[in-house]
Structures are given as C-alpha cells and as structure tokens.
C-alpha cells in the first residue's frame, strides 16, 4: 500500500473535479441564457467572446470582485458556512460518477446510494442559509426547500430502484455496463415511467422551474439566498448548476447507457447525453409557470410516489416471470 | 312591470328623505340625473337606500368652499344608466360627518382619502388615518388655504416626513413581532419584484397561510388634483398621461370627454375615429403588459417576452402618431394634437392578422396549460356583491359576472356605432379575470377593424375655443383598461379648475383585495395581486 501515489491521486482528481465544475457551470449558465433567449425570441449574450461564450466568465469575475455584504442581524458563522455546505457535497458526488470504462475516481459498491445522499446534504446548507439570514423571505424559502426535498427524495429513489432491480447491483459502473446490450430506458415497459418520475423529482431536487418554489423570485424575492451577495451568492449558483449536472449525469448513466456508445470515447457520449437531459430541463423551465407549494406536495405524495411504488411491483413481477420462463 | 311599481331613487328622495335642496340635471351635460343636498344625519339612510336599489358608490370626495366643505357622493346604477349626486355640507368649525364605510366597503378608502386631503373627520370610521400622505404629515393639501408653502414642501420637511415614515414601519405592526407567536407579519413591498410599483401589503401570516392583509399605498403620491387646481385647463393634459402610464390614452379620452361635455362641444368625426383607434390599440398594449407581468408573477418567464414583443409593435405605431411611447399627451379639447401619419393605417392592417395568430398561441401556451389552470381556478374569489360594494370596475367586475362596460353602459364618442361584445364570466376568480382580459383584446381588435374601414377624412381640430369651462359641476366617466375612470369637475368659470376629482379604477379595485386575501398562500397573494391589474401611480395619483 503506497500512500504517496494515493495522495497524489486525490489531489489530482480533486483539482480536475473542481476545474470541471467551474468550467461546466460557466458553460451551463451560458447555455441556459442561450436556450432561454432562443425560446423567448431573443439573441442572448453575444458580445463577449464567440456567441457570448465568455459572458459568464465576465460575470463570475464581477461577482468575485463584489463586496460580501453581511446582514447585521445574521448568525455570523452559520451565514458564512451555508454556501460551502451547499457547494461541497455536490463536488464530492463527482467521486463516484463513472465517466468512462474504468474512468471513475472511486468505484464504491454502494455508489448508487452515496450519490443520492450527497446531492441531498446540500439542502441542509440551504436551510442554514435561510435560517441564518434572519430574513422572513429567506426563512420561508428554506422552509419550502426542506419540505420539498423530503417529499421528492422518496419518488427519486423509488423510481431509480427499478434500475437497480434490473441491473442487480448498486455499483454505478456495473449499472452502466449492464446496458451494453440496450439502454435501460427501453429495456422494460416500466423504465420509461421510471424515467419520467426521475426527471420530475430531479427537477424538484434541483429547485428548477416549475418546482422552483424555494427561490420563487416573484414571491420570495430570491428565496433562501435573498441576503447573499458576491462570491457567496455565486457558490449557491455554482452548487445549483452542478446539482443539475449531476442529476442529469445520473439520469444518463441509469437510463441512457452512460458512457457507452460507438465511435467516440465514453466521456463524450456521457457529456452528450447529460447535456441533452440538461437541455430538456431548461426547456421545461422556460415553458411552464410555477406550482404552488401545496400543489407541489400533492404532486409528490399523490401522484409520483404511488406511481413509483406500483412501478416497482410491476418490475418485480416482470423480472420474476423472466426468471421463470428463461 | 308597471313603472309605478318600480322603485325609483328620485321619488324616494322627494317623498321619503325630503332633501334640503333638490335639482334635476341634464345627464347629457353634467353626467348626473339629479343633485340633492341632504342633512348629515340622513346620509346613512340615503346610502342604505342606494345599496338596496343596486347602486354602487362611484366616487366620494369633498370640495373646499369658502364658507364650508361639501362632501360629494356619486352613486351609479350598474344595471341601468343612472348616476346621481348627493351632497352634505360640513362646516369648517365642526369638521365632522357620519361615515358610510359600514354600508359601502369602498367608502372606507374614499373617506380616508378625504380625511387625508381635507382633514374632515368621519364619525365611526374603523380606521381613519392618512392614506396617501405619510402618517406623520401635518398638512391638508386640498384646502384652498394650502398654497404649498415651504412649511409643507421644502427639503427639510420632506426629509422629516421620510424619517417619520420609516419609523412608521415599526409602529404600524398591530402586535410586537418579537413575541414568539405562530403568526407573524410580513411586509410585502414597497420594494418587491411583484408589487408592480411601490405598493406595500402588510400580510398577517400563520406559516404561509394569510390570516389577513392590508395594502398600504401612497408611495408615489404626487397630488395631481392639487397640481391641476393651480394650472389652467390646457396645462392639465400632461397630468393625464402620467396617471396610468400603461393605458394613458384612455385617460386622455376621459379628460377630453369631461371637458367637451362641460363646454358643450362635439369634435369632428375624424377625431372621434382616431381617438377610438389609438385608445383601443393602447388598451391591447395595456392588457399585453398585464398578461406578461401576471404570468411572470406565476413563474412563467417566456410569455412575458412574447407579450412585450407584440406590445412593442403597438408602441411603435403610437409613437409614430404621438411622438411618445408611454405617457401620451395627444388629445386636445375638440380635437387632437395632430393627424395620424398616412403610413400608420397600413401598419395597423399588417399588425392585426399577426396578432390574431399570437392570441391563438397564447391560448395554447397559457390558457390550456394545466399548471396555470390549477394555479388560477377558484383563487381570489370576488363575489358580485363584494365587487359592487367595493366599487370594483373594469375586467375585475366583468370577471365577477356583471356586464358593466362604460363603452356600452354610458356610451361616449362613436362606441354606439361599433359592433363589439362585452366578455363576462361569472366565477369571479383569477382565471375569470384573465379570461376576460384576453377576450377583451379580441374585441378591441374587432373595434379597430371597423374603425379602419370607416375612418372619414376631415379636420382634426375645432379651431380656437374658449379657455375656460362654464361655471358648474360635471361628472363624466370613460372605460379605461382597468375600469371606469371618472372625472368630477367643479368649475367656477375661471381659467383653472376649482376642484378636480380623479376617480381612478385601480384605487377601488385594489381596495377589494382585502376581501380576497384571507386564506391564501403567499404564492396566491402574488397571483391575486397580479390578477387585479394595478398601476400604482394611478392609485396614488
């Protein structure tokens, strides 16, 4: 057991992950602005760099140079901790994402569970942010965020459980490999349903419209991050976009065959599929109005969860029959 | 039903109430059928009788005469054309009169406004405090003795008022917020993305559920009424564009109709057609702006841009005509500032089919959207009775099942010759108000089509007119994009109006929100607020 290479490995991968997260968030923000502009009869950013590609970089520089405003009544330590508590777990989630054949930082045998847990811890950060700001809008936003998170965690896990049953493993790399003969989204009748439930829950988990009630700007000004400015605000922003990216990557890995595909290296295929899902998420955001908080809860508990449970039962039956017949 | 059995407010006045003075008036000229001066103690009886006979309180104001105050009530019937004026005299020493706010809900804010601007006390008013001016103000600006001396308007005084108003934020909490109760107060505004200007709504919440809420207004008060009193009639035109900057053409129309009625002149036919054309275009623009921002309130971004795209085309056309994009100052007494340019009509013709297609798009994108329907159906219920009691007018009233549109109800200009419908819905919820406005855009298109076909050639001015309005009192109202815009004008025959009361629709419409808020969630508050379509400068005046 050599310690030095292991440390080097951690440092190297950590740097790569953080670099990728930053560049990816910049790209996603640009993409969001372009997609929304196209949907809304606009041009979007044009002037900084090719097609405005560097616009988000300029914005990031501006955010970094801004003053970190500190509300008088805020809880000092928690207030400073919250953005980090949101951002750190989503970075950790990169550890277990399979980006290619054998291209995975740590191939844990409970990777599937860990990735969901990590994307979830961020909500504690959101609650801390709302609580410590000592602002009613922020508190309302974080209350909504917690309620929403608890509710949507259940259908998210239940819907993906179908894939685990089909693949027979919790290891993400093996789940991807199990799709070498065909993507899971088409392999069984229950999987498309699971994918839709997964997509809805992922939208809600990432606070994206039409489920963006924790930061509904027309109601709660900016929700839980009302009081945040400068780089702290940017961290929330980075965290949100990275969470979307990770949700989409998981979606691509579980349902769309992950990094598998002909001709190109696996990384490209994974990115392609991920960005396709991200595009759908953006498309949805710019089309629909926002749900109300009670309707949001009703949607999770009365529609998504029953469907997800029934879905599991049907999958179990189908799998059992296949075993008996074959 | 025989006429004798029909209850008639005039007979009731003459036979039962026995007013001190009673005068029949010509509705064509003064806008009212009769005027009665009654003793103070009979006003509550009169108000009850008016309420029983399907009248709503259209306007309540006061006039400062040298000897005494006149408190003037205008009651209007919603199911037939009849408006009458009741006055009570209040001596300057006594300065008190009974309140009718327990009979008409709309009187609550009207009386507060009169108290605010004249200092007249209303006995038994539940909440008699300043409404337009800050609570700490010591001036009564509409008194003729108030000349806007430095004491009331210099910088130090203003700074003092601003400072005291800031303290007012703490003072107005009915309970201390430091207590650990389940309920708490939330100030929605004055700086908030969805209050459409500087409106503050004090919400009393339990969790996210609203227990009650009260709009607090006056942040953009500029006192147009006093401004107009110290200007001559012609100089008042720019004030009209700045009341409701979203649908300013209707306010031009309102002022034009008011003064022309009073002067007894009729503008040339081409003028009337151009007026209707520009007003209806402006109405569509106003509804489009409302639709975009309302959907933005509900969290849908994209329709905002579509609506503004269409609105931009209308604004371009109106800019071509008036030279202004927002605060139009285009109409003149008996005419217009200038004729429309020749290239405008083809532009309108080109715009109409495009916009019809767009309306279908909106229908598919918004009206049929499941989330939108769930958010708006059954929300913010405004019953017929409540709407009438609050004096709500415009699309909000028509969404509550009352087909009241002044273009048909009290026809002015060329509206009687035009063919259009009044879209009405009975639910009285947010969706009904949305639906009424979208249909109104279609009706406006219909009007524009007819106007363009029929528009005659001719002069657009009557030439030189007298600069003053004959002595007398006049009331006139037109249908603006948000409801009925009334002008009560007292003229003493000089070059300036003696008193002008601007009865703006959003003022009463916003008042009605007090009934709609309890039981809503915070998200619903925004939707309800959006659905009544308020423009703050028009409320604060």
Architecture overview:
The complex is a heterodimer of chains A (326) and B (541). Chain A has 326 residues and is mostly helical. Chain A has 2 domains: 1-65; 66-325, no CATH class. Chain A is built from 12 helices and no strands. Chain A has helices at residues 3-39, 55-64, 76-92, 111-133, 136-167, 172-177, 184-187, 190-205, 217-220, 230-255, 266-285, 293-325. In chain A, helix 1 crosses helix 10 and helix 3 (76-92) runs antiparallel to helix 4 (111-133). Chain A is globular, with a radius of gyration of 20 Å. The termini of chain A are far apart. Chain B has 541 residues and is of the alpha+beta class. Chain B has helices spanning 9-17, 27-30, 43-52, 107-118, 150-153, 155-171, 224-229, 237-241, 248-263, 269-297, 302-322, 344-367, 370-376, 384-389, 395-399, 406-409, 430-454, 505-511, 513-516, 522-531, 536-540; strands spanning 21-24, 34-37, 55-64, 68-77, 83-91, 96-98, 121-123, 183-188, 200-206, 209-216, 331-332, 335-336, 472-480, 483-491, 499-503. Chain B has a 5-stranded mixed beta sheet with strand order 1-2-5-4-3, covered by helices on one side. In chain B, strands 8-9-10 form a 3-stranded antiparallel beta sheet, with no helix packed on it. In chain B, strands 13-14-15 form a 3-stranded antiparallel beta sheet. In chain B, a hairpin with a 2-residue loop joins strand 9 (200-206) and strand 10. In chain B, helix 9 (248-263) packs antiparallel against helix 10 (269-297), helix 11 (302-322) runs antiparallel to helix 12 and helix 12 runs antiparallel to helix 17. The longest helix of chain B has 29 residues, at 269-297. The radius of gyration of chain B is 23 Å and the shape is globular.
């Amino acid at each position: 057991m050599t310690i030095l290479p292991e440390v080097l490995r951690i440092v190297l991968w950590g740097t790569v992950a953080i670099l990728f997260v930053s560049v990816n968030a910049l790209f996603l923000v640009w993409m969001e602005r372009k997609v929304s502009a196209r949907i809304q009869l606009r041009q979007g950013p044009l002037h900084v760099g090719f097609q405005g590609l560097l616009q988000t970089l300029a914005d990031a520089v501006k955010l970094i140079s801004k003053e970190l405003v500190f509300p008088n009544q805020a809880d000092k330590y928690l207030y400073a901790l919250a953005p980090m508590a949101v951002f750190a777990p989503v970075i950790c989630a990169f550890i277990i994402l399979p980006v290619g054949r054998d291209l995975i930082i740590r191939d844990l045998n409970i990777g599937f569970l860990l990735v969901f847990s990590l994307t979830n811890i961020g909500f504690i950060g959101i609650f801390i942010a709302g609580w410590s700001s000592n602002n009613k809008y922020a508190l309302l936003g974080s209350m909504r965020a917690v309620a929403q998170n608890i509710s949507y965690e259940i259908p998210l896990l239940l819907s993906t459980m179908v894939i685990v049953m089909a693949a027979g493993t919790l290891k993400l790399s093996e789940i991807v490999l199990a799709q070498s003969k065909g993507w899971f989204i088409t392999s069984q009748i229950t999987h498309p349903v699971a994918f839709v439930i997964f997509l809805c829950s992922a939208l809600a988990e990432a606070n994206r419209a039409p489920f963006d009630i924790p930061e509904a700007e027309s109601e709660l000004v900016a929700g839980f991050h009302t009081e945040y400015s400068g780089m702290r605000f940017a961290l929330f922003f980075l965290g949100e976009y990275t969470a979307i990216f990770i949700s989409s990557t998981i979606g691509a890995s579980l349902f769309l065959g992950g990094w598998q595909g002909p001709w190109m290296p696996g990384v490209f295929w994974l990115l392609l599929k991920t960005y396709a899902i991200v595009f759908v998420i953006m498309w949805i955001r710019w089309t629909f109005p926002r749900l109300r908080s009670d309707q949001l809860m009703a949607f999770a508990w009365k529609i998504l969860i029953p469907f997800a449970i029934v879905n599991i039962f049907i999958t179990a039956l189908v799998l059992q029959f296949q075993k008996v017949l074959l | 039903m025989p006429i004798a059995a029909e209850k008639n407010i005039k007979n009731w006045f003459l036979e039962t109430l026995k007013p001190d003075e009673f005068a029949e008036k010509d509705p064509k000229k003064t806008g009212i059928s009769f005027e009665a001066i009654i003793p103070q103690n009979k006003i509550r009886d009169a108000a009850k009788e008016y309420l029983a006979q399907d009248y709503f309180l259209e306007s309540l104001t006061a006039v400062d005469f040298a000897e005494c105050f006149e408190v003037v009530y205008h009651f209007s019937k919603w199911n037939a054309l009849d408006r009458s004026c009741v006055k009570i005299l209040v001596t300057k020493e006594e300065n008190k009169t009974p309140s009718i706010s327990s009979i008409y809900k709309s009187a609550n804010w009207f009386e507060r406004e009169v108290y605010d601007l004249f200092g007249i006390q209303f006995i038994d008013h539940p909440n008699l405090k300043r409404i337009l001016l800050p609570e700490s103000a010591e001036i009564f600006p509409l008194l003729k003795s108030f000349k806007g001396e430095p004491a009331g308007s210099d910088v130090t005084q203003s700074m003092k008022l601003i400072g005291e108003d800031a303290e007012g934020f703490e003072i107005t909490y009915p309970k201390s917020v430091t207590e650990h109760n389940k309920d708490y107060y939330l100030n929605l505004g004055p700086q908030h993305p969805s209050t459409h200007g500087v409106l503050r709504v004090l919400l009393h919440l339990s969790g996210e559920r609203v227990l009650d809420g009260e709009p607090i207004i006056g942040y953009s008060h500029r006192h147009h009424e006093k401004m107009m009193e110290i200007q001559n009639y012609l100089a008042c035109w720019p004030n009209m564009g700045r009341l409701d900057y979203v649908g300013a053409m209707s306010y031009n129309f309102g002022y034009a109709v008011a003064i022309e009625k009073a002067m007894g002149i009729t503008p040339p036919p081409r003028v009337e057609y151009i007026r209707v054309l520009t007003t209806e275009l402006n109405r569509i623009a106003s509804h489009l702006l409302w639709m975009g921002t309302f959907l933005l309130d509900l969290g849908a971004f994209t329709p905002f841009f579509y609506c503004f795209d269409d609105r931009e085309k209308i604004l371009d056309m109106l800019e071509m005509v008036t030279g202004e994009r927002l605060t139009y100052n285009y109409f003149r007494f008996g005419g217009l500032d200038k004729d429309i340019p020749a290239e405008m009509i083809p532009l309108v013709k080109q715009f109409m089919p495009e916009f019809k297609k767009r309306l279908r798009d909106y229908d598919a994108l918004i009206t049929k959207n499941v989330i939108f329907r769930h958010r708006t159906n059954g929300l913010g219920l405004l019953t017929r009775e409540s709407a009438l009691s609050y004096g709500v007018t415009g699309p909000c009233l028509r969404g509550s099942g009352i087909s009241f549109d002044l273009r048909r109800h009290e026809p002015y200009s060329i509206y009687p010759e035009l063919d259009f419908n009044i879209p009405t819905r009975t639910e009285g919820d947010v969706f009904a108000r949305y639906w009424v406005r979208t249909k109104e855009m279609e009706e406006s298109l219909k009007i524009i089509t007819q106007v363009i076909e029929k528009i005659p050639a001719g002069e657009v001015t009557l030439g030189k007119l007298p600069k003053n309005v004959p002595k007398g009192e006049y009331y006139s109202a037109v249908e603006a994009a948000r409801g009925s815009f009334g002008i009560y004008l007292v003229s003493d025959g000089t070059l300036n109006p003696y008193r002008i009361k601007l009865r703006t629709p959003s003022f009463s419409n916003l008042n009605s929100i007090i009934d709609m808020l309890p039981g809503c969630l915070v998200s619903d508050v925004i939707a309800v607020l959006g659905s009544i379509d308020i423009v703050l400068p028009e409320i604060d005046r």
